[in-house]
Design goal:
With about 325 residues, the protein is α/β, with parallel strands linked by helices. Helix content is about 35%, strand content about 25%.
Length: about 325
């Protein structure tokens, strides 16, 4: 087996912390992955990975060798790309992930525009309301809503969203407009349980106002909860981007705005750092520009910063 391939397999095993995960990410059989690492260890004359029943981690020698492998593989990739002109001409398949509704509403139009700009590219949209692992699942770019803990991934903030309580003008005319979160006890509440499993709704910049709501209607999707609100049945609470068009048209009205929580940041996330591939860089540049001009997102006067974030958090919506 080619030594560079063995290095790539070793790096993937170390990144995902297991042979099975590396096999899935590389689309190789588990025995082939095991054989590649064994061949590499035999070639260098040292054990590179410490295997336990629960995890696989680099040994002390393996950790040093891992960094060398990363550097070598990047240099080879850059040399190949330079020769083929890949940095100027995106090619291959681009996989993008986001939460289901945000992805459908705001990421898919960017992806289709990207594919129109680069006819040789193929796109794959992975819109799911669950954690995704960029490395293990072979994802090039993610769009994440919410605060992200520190990690080695890169995140560019493109805006923010907020949680809003809203209802139709017809409902508010008939039932009255709540003036305080505690007034929700007197209203028909529609809860989108896909977004929040807790019925403890917090309000205020310090999230110090707590209301235990008693919904009359539970919906497993945000779309259903919003539809019930649009039809004048009750009050719901969703993320602002999900109802931005309805609020602009007057179909829904925001209530209790003075009690809103702090906004949630929206980031474009990628795992490749400075040496990002041409296909990913072209999409990132396009996505950052389009999302920063998206009226459904809140924008500050700051240009956004490059932060080191972890995309492996539950999507906010």
């Amino acid at each position: 087996m080619d030594k560079l391939l063995c290095m790539a397999v070793f790096v993937k095993v170390a990144d995902v912390g297991g042979f099975a995960g590396a096999a899935r990410a590389l689309r190789m059989s588990p025995p082939a992955v095991t054989r590649a690492v064994a061949m590499l260890e035999e070639a260098v004359g040292a054990r590179l990975l410490q295997r336990t029943t629960r995890s696989v981690k680099p040994t002390e020698a393996g950790a040093r060798y891992l960094e060398d492998c990363r550097r070598i593989l990047v240099e080879v990739e850059e040399a190949d790309a330079g020769a083929a002109g890949a940095h100027a001409n995106p090619s291959g398949t681009l996989t993008v992930t986001a939460s289901m509704r945000f992805g459908t509403l705001h990421v898919l139009p960017i992806l289709t525009e990207y594919l129109d700009l680069y006819p040789t590219m193929t796109g794959q949209a992975l819109f799911v309301d669950r954690n995704t692992n960029l490395v293990e699942e072979g994802i090039d770019v993610a769009v994440r809503i919410g605060h992200l803990p520190s990690s080695g991934y890169h995140a560019i903030q493109v805006g923010s969203v907020r949680r809003v309580v809203c209802a139709s003008p017809a409902y508010l005319a008939a039932a009255g407009r709540p003036g305080h979160p505690a007034d929700l006890a007197q209203h028909k509440v529609v809860a989108a349980i896909s977004a929040w499993t807790s019925l403890e709704w917090r309000f205020g910049q310090g999230r110090q106002v707590v209301v235990n709501v008693r919904p009359r209607l539970f919906c497993n999707t945000n779309e259903a909860a919003i539809e019930a609100a649009l039809k004048g049945w009750g009050i719901t609470r969703v993320l602002s981007y999900q109802v931005a068009a309805d609020i602009r048209s007057g179909s829904l009205e925001v209530v209790l705005p003075e009690f809103e929580e702090p906004s949630l940041p929206v980031h474009v996330v990628h795992a490749e750092g400075r040496r990002v591939t041409a296909k990913a860089r072209a999409f990132i540049d396009l996505a950052v520009d389009r999302l920063r001009h998206n009226p459904a997102l809140l924008h500050s006067n700051e240009s956004g910063s490059l932060a080191r974030r972890d995309p492996n958090t539950r999507p906010a919506g």
